[in-house]
Design brief:
Blueprint: H1 15-18, H2 29-45, E1 49-53, E2 59-62, H3 64-70, H4 74-77, H5 91-103, E3 108-116, E4 122-133, E5 139-148, H6 150-195, H7 200-228, E6 236-239, H8 240-254, E7 259-264, E8 271-274, H9 276-292, E9 298-313, E10 316-327, H10 334-337, H11 357-367, E11 371-376, E12 382-389
């Protein structure tokens, strides 16, 4: 038998033995043996976790890197169910993904999910799942690669929070102006109360105006606090109409009067799977970009509709919430559009933008299984379209 110290000629074609049940058919026994030995060696020493998992979700074998990620030894993992170490909120999506995957044409899928380490702490892991079929084409087992992205996820959360605070900074001028108006009304009607202390009907009228004005200020503060809150991602069924309406209310309250904000939202609720704060941040960031593109004023138009089509994936027709955000601003040239979602890319002056807003919005929508696209020309305004899958 030949030595296997050197890379076999077909090491870049491991499917020769993986897809044929490890049988040396078209290649010689020696070459097949070396391919298998080399490929096993690569997986064993890989920095990413790797496992063979049965169709019912139990570990058959794994490499040392996976033990390092999950805290279990290779022997302990054998026979353990993936469900038993998966965060409870992820199991329903796992069942749905595996079912569609096993019965569909796609041979692999990728997603981020939470696992529970042996010592109890939570991990964020990127998994790449490949379905291996036998010679007759029936599902045989899963080959899964695991990459620990916990640190990356934490950094992503910090960036999102940082960008939220930048958005609040951008809104500060409008908030200060709005609150100055609120305080002027409160102080003015307080003075009128003092002057009309002997007229009960006027006292009641002025008190009602003060109450409504204070409630408007309280509502604005609550929404800003919601935006600033630093919380873990929490995807749950949400009404897209309400999420959009909240962001529109903040924009209408804080943008200069030279910018007219109009909206066209359907009466029927459109249900999506979303993290309230993160999607709110996406909308508000797009509104702020529109505001910056209209320094002399203009029109900001927001539309929401539900359509069925291949908006998110060219391979799949599905019901989609389509949100269009149009401004009458300066527009964007084609060269800039190609880079617009790149991290740290900005056309704003130094100190007026980090270049993280649109890249974070892109990442948030990707995590929501959604999509964003931009259409624009210099001098003709800009349209951002956000697509989110509808829950049925």
């Amino acid at each position: 038998m030949q030595h296997c110290d050197e890379i076999p000629p077909k090491i870049n074609q491991p499917s020769d033995f993986l897809e044929k049940d490890f049988l040396p058919k078209e290649i010689g026994l020696d070459e097949w043996f070396c391919q298998a030995a080399q490929f096993k060696n690569i997986l064993y020493h890989s920095p990413n976790g790797f496992a063979i998992v049965s169709l019912d979700g139990k570990f058959i074998s794994s490499n040392p890197a996976l033990s390092q990620i999950l805290g279990y030894s290779e022997n302990e993992l054998i026979g353990i169910s993936l469900d038993s170490i998966t965060h409870a909120d992820e199991t329903e999506e796992d069942i749905s993904s595996i079912d569609q995957f096993s019965n569909g044409p796609t041979p692999s899928f990728k997603r981020k999910k939470r696992y529970i380490h042996k010592d109890g702490h939570l991990l964020w892991v990127q998994i790449d799942v490949t379905l291996i079929r036998n010679q007759t084409g029936n599902p045989n087992y899963f080959a899964i690669q695991f990459q620990d992205i916990t640190k990356h996820h934490e950094l992503e959360k910090q960036l999102i929070h940082s960008q939220r605070m930048e958005s609040i900074g951008s809104l500060a001028g409008g908030v200060a102006h709005d609150f100055n108006n609120i305080l002027t009304v409160v102080l003015g009607y307080t003075t009128l109360l003092e002057k009309n202390s002997e007229h009960p009907e006027k006292i009641l009228q002025y008190s009602e105006i003060i109450k409504k004005t204070a409630e408007r200020g309280s509502s604005l503060i609550k929404q800003l606090l919601t935006l600033a809150r630093k919380v873990e991602s929490d995807l749950k069924p949400s009404i897209a109409n309400d999420l959009l309406l909240e962001a529109i209310h903040i924009a209408s309250s804080t943008f200069p009067k030279s910018i007219r904000v109009i909206s066209d939202l359907p009466q029927d609720p459109i249900l999506v799977q979303a993290d309230h704060n993160q999607i709110h941040q996406v909308f508000l960031n797009l509104f702020l970009n529109a505001k910056d593109a209209m320094p002399n004023g203009g029109l900001l138009s927001i539309r929401l509709r539900m359509e069925e089509g291949k908006f998110i994936s060219p391979e799949k027709t599905q019901k989609t919430a389509v949100i269009e955000i149009l401004d009458s601003g300066t527009g964007i040239d084609r060269k800039t559009i190609r880079k617009i979602f790149d991290p740290f890319f900005t056309t704003k002056e130094p100190g007026k933008g980090t270049g993280l807003g649109l890249s974070i919005a892109y990442g948030i929508l990707e995590n929501h299984k959604g999509k964003i696209k931009v259409e624009s020309e210099l001098g003709s305004g800009t349209k951002f379209s956000v697509f989110l899958p509808v829950l049925e």
